[in-house]
Amino acid sequence: MLLAALAPLLVAASLRPPIDGLVALEAAGAVATLALVCLSVGLGESILFTVAVVAAVAFWIGSLVFARFLGRWT
């Protein structure tokens, strides 16, 4: 069910202005991280929790880089 929430966010990220797309990508990163954490707990695999933590950090750093370049483009 969480993965179904990614579709509208990705559509919004591709069709909206860049700043709105950045917000949608941040929300998609949170949803993807939450899906990985739920999968980790459900399967009892600790490696998936590690992947979720790394993904959360990568999404956060990626959004900061995107915001910096967005500032240069406008």
Structural topology:
Elements: H1 6-15, H2 18-43, H3 46-73
Note down, in words, how this protein is organized:
With 74 residues, the protein is an all-alpha fold. The protein has one domain. The chain has helices spanning 6-15, 18-43, 46-73. The model has no long low-confidence stretch (mean pLDDT 87).
Features:
mainly alpha; 74 residues; flat; 3 helices
Number of strands: 0
Number of domains: 1
N-to-C CA distance: 36 Å
Written as H for each helix and E for each strand, in order along the chain, the element string is: HHH
Low-confidence stretches: none
Number of helices: 3
User: Major beta sheet, specifics?
Assistant: none
> Structural class given helices, strands, pairing?
mainly alpha
| Global geometry | flat
SS strand fraction: under 5%
Helix content: over 70%
Rg result: 14 Å
Task: Summarize model confidence as the mean pLDDT.
Answer: 87
